[in-house]
Every structure is written in C-alpha cells, then in structure tokens.
Specification:
33% helix, alpha+beta, 22 strands, 4-stranded mixed sheet, 526 residues, 9-stranded mixed sheet
C-alpha cells in the first residue's frame, strides 16, 4: 500500500509539474506573441510618422541619392550658412495623398525623407475638399484645374509663411515619373530632378531660357504688353526686350523664344543688314522658338511673311463671324470652333484626345471659349514647303479654327468658311536627338488679354504651347532618373494568387497553431 500511494504521489507530482511548466510555456508564448503584435503596431505607426523604413529596391527609389543631397545643399544653404526655407504643399491630407495612387506612395516617402533630412523644409497638407480656398492661390489661371495628387513648391520664411511676389510651382504627380512615349508606360522615377529643378528656379539659382520681346517696328512695349509679361513669367522664362537693329541674341541656352507682337512696320532685310538673318540663325542654328502675333490692323509685311513661309505659316486677311461673336463686339471678337481643331497627336480633327484633352481633361461640350479679338486669318502652308535640313522632319497645322460661318474679308470680296486663327509649325532638326523648333502664328490683337481670363481658355492654351517649347525643368548631369526594374511575378492567375494568399494568411498560421496545441496537450497528459 505504501508503495502504491508513493507511486500515486509521484504521478500526482509529475502531473503538477507538467501542468505547471506546460501552462507556463503557453502563457509565455501568448505574452510573447502579444508583445510582438503590440511592438509591430507601434513600430508601424511610428514608421509612417517618422519615415522609418529600409529601402531594399534595386534602384533605391525611396532613398535620397548623395548627388541629390549635394545639389540641394547648394540651393538651400548659402556659403555663409544662410538658409532658404521651403514648403512642400499637398492639396490633400497626408494619409489621403499617400494612398491616392501608386505614384503618390513613392512621392510621399521622398517628401518625408526631405523633411527629415532638412530642418528648413516643411511638409504642409491642406484638406482642399473641405477648404477649397486653400488651393485657389495655386491656380496659374482662372481656368486652371487642381487635383488632390498635385504637389506645390513654394518659398517661405522660417515660420513657414509663403513669401509674397514669388509664384509657387505646381506639378502633377505624373510629372515626377519618366514615360516611354512609344509604349505609354512609366519607366522610371525622376523625382530628384523635378524637385531640384523646382527649388532652383524658385530660389533663382538656375539658368532659365529667355523670352526675347522684339522692339523697333512699332510693337507695344513690354510694359504696354503686360499680359504677355505675366504669361511668360508663369511659363518660367526670363524676359528681355531686344531691338535687332542694334542688338544680337545672347548665346543660346536652348529653348529660348522670340516674340514678335503686332509690328506696324516690316523687319529689315537688305544685303547690307538683315534682321531676318539674325532670326534665321536663332531658329535654325540655335533651335530657338518664335511666336508671331498679328491682327486685322497689321498691314502686309513682306519680309516677315516670306520668312514665316519657310516655316509653313503666314497671315491672310481679316475675319468676322456674326453668328459666333462676343455679344456687343460688332463681330470684332469671335470664337474658335473646337470641333474644327486639328489634333497633331492623331493627325485628325478631334477634341476628345490629344492636345485639348490634356489641357482641359474634358470633352467638347464642356470646353471653355477661345476668343480672338480683331481676328486675322493664319495661313497654313504645305509642310513640304518648310525649309529643313536632310536629317529633319516638319509639320504645320491649324491648332484653332473659326466656325464655318466665318467670313474672310479681302477688299470687297467676302469668302465664307472656316479658317485658321492659330497655327503651329514644328521642326525636328535631329531625329535621333529630338531637337525641335516651334513657330506659332496667332491672328488676334489681344489673345492674352486679362479681360478674357476668367471666361475663356486663351491663357491656358498659351501656357500649354510654352510647355511644348520648354518643359520648365532644369536638368543636372549628375542626377538621373531611377529605372523601374521588372521584378514582378508574371503569368500568375487570379486563382493562383488567391491560393497563395489563403496559404500564407490562413493555412500556415493555423497549422502552426495546431502543432502548438498538440504539443501542449501531449505534454499535459504525458
């Protein structure tokens, strides 16, 4: 009996020991798992706020390169240690912007890196859905459209207050990425170049192309043509008056423009001296751009007309349209007909895609008016007449045309029908390098008049044309875009993807839990 009781005591003691250590193991395991989960939640929350992460991408998309930091230091910190302060403004709250699309995920992380690295850069997020007034000041024109994934850069003081009289720079999230135009697919992340460019231009530490405003032929002065000055500044150009009778163009920096605005007398073109020759060198040798504006009151200018014909453009006679004119204007201000607009992207007449789709993101019925004051016909010559070199291509097209009810007046003769009111010519000088020249002819006295700004698209169209001539970006030789590496899985069906998800999220954790339960039960009853 004593031996039996002794055995029972031993068994009882053993059961208690198994129960004690088995329960303790389970308790410790549960506590450990709970702590891991809690620490993971805390770390995840802090990482989203503090920007903690490990960049394991092949091209280091989420890290700032040493070359970028070196260039940014030159812009934001002067030699004597004085700092330039910058606001990066989001038009949505941070969480909404970060999760808006795949692009903003990458952009947000880059901005957080910048803010963490520089104490003179602030990240400002506005809820423009609730407070749309916060976004109004960032519109380039009254008809400019804003999106919640747009990004704005502005100079500010040390307290974060935007500096007056220095226009902010607004970019779409797409502009921070490189696209292959052949496949219409994004091939790289170019945020470092875009950010450096924006900040350098704001801080006045980057060379900008020059917009030369021609004088000497009865043109209004730059002071008198304030509307042109405003739009050219919005386009990012440095503006300079030039009189070719006694001045020359500076050494071309690329993407320079010359504006010939409503001259009253012709350009000089003789064997002894020629302003036309200077313009030919500016366009043909230095690949600059030109905008020529005439109206019904500008006389026939033979030398200028002959010169423009080499680029597939010219000017005709005055135009009127009693059926499509601004009320009370006496038909001196007429509308353009978007359905007659030539689309250079598809070589067809269209407004739902291409140039105007990009400009307004809208269909014809919703497009704002385009007004031509004192309209004059723009003549579009055959592209084959454009003078180019052997390694070049060219095209000329009417970007905006009148309604078919318009009438072209030549003396006492009236011809009814649609005519061009704004024409564009593009010459690609070197096909492989895509070096181009744009020549624009506008048949309106005050196409950029502030009178129309709130109700028509004239300024928006001109800004888009200026972007064709210069993309408002300063490039750095030591900064390149980060290529996207194709490391994604291919040929994985939805069923296979779902199967892997269930396996990783449910089956494996359940299997581990079952194994743990079996070990616990066996130890307890062993």
């Amino acid at each position: 009996m004593a031996k039996t009781n002794q055995n029972k005591g031993a068994v009882k003691t053993k059961d208690k020991r198994n129960l004690k250590y088995g329960s303790l193991s389970v308790t410790i395991t549960v506590i450990f798992v709970a702590l891991v989960i809690i620490l993971n939640i805390i770390a995840t929350s802090l990482s989203s706020v503090q920007g903690w992460y490990t960049d394991m991408t092949a091209s280091s998309y989420y890290s700032l390169s040493d070359a970028f930091i070196e260039e940014m230091d030159k812009i934001l910190i002067s030699e004597n240690g004085e700092k330039t302060y910058l606001n990066i403004v989001l038009l949505a709250e941070e969480d909404i912007f970060r999760n808006y699309n795949e692009m903003t995920v990458m952009l947000y992380q880059t901005f957080k890196e910048l803010v963490n690295h520089y104490d003179n850069i602030n990240l400002v997020a506005h809820n423009t859905t609730v407070h749309p007034e916060y976004a109004e000041k960032y519109k380039a024109t009254a008809l400019d459209t804003l999106s919640m994934d747009d990004v704005v850069f502005e100079l500010c003081d040390e307290n974060g207050n935007a500096l007056p009289n220095i226009p902010a720079k607004k970019y779409t999230s797409k502009s921070f990425f490189m696209m292959d135009t052949g496949t219409n697919s994004y091939i790289g992340y170019n945020a470092e170049t875009k950010i450096l460019s924006a900040v350098a231009l704001l801080a006045g530490k980057a060379d900008r192309p020059t917009a030369y405003y021609l004088q000497g032929h009865g043109e209004p002065t730059l002071k008198e043509a304030g509307d042109w000055k405003e739009v050219l500044e919005l386009g990012g150009f440095e503006i300079k008056e030039i009189n070719l009778s006694n001045e020359n163009f500076d050494a071309n920096k690329g993407d320079d423009i010359v504006i010939i605005n409503r001259p009253k007398t012709d350009l000089v073109h003789t064997t002894d001296f020629s302003e036309i020759t200077k313009l030919k060198t500016f366009l043909g040798d230095h690949h600059g751009h030109m905008i020529v504006v005439e109206d019904a009151e500008v006389p026939k200018l033979r030398a200028l007309e002959d010169f423009m014909s080499e680029y597939g453009l010219g000017f005709g006679n005055s135009v009127k349209d009693n059926s499509h004119s601004v009320s009370g204007s006496g038909a001196s201000k007429i509308f353009a007909d978007y359905s007659q607009t030539y689309n250079p992207n598809t070589d067809a007449q269209s407004t739902s895609t291409g140039f105007f789709s990009k400009l307004f993101n809208s269909r014809t019925s919703n497009l704002p008016s385009t007004i031509f004051s004192l309209p004059k016909e723009v003549v579009i010559l055959d592209s084959g007449e454009i003078v180019t070199g052997t390694n070049a291509s060219s095209t000329s097209f009417p970007l905006l045309k009148s309604y078919s009810s318009a009438q072209t007046i030549k003396g006492e003769t009236t011809i009814e029908g649609s005519v061009a009111l704004l024409g564009v010519s593009r010459i690609i000088w070197e096909l492989n390098a895509n070096v181009d020249t744009y020549v624009v002819a506008i048949g309106s006295a005050d196409f950029l008049s502030a009178e129309y700004e709130s109700s028509c698209a004239n300024r928006n169209i001109m800004l888009e044309l200026l972007r064709l001539m210069w993309d408002n970006t300063v490039y750095y030789d030591n900064i390149t875009y980060k290529s996207f590496d194709n490391t994604s899985l291919t040929d994985v069906s939805t069923a296979q993807a779902n199967a892997w998800t269930i396996t990783c999220v449910a089956i494996i954790p359940v299997a581990i839990g079952v194994c743990g339960l079996i070990v616990y039960v066996r130890r307890r009853h062993s």
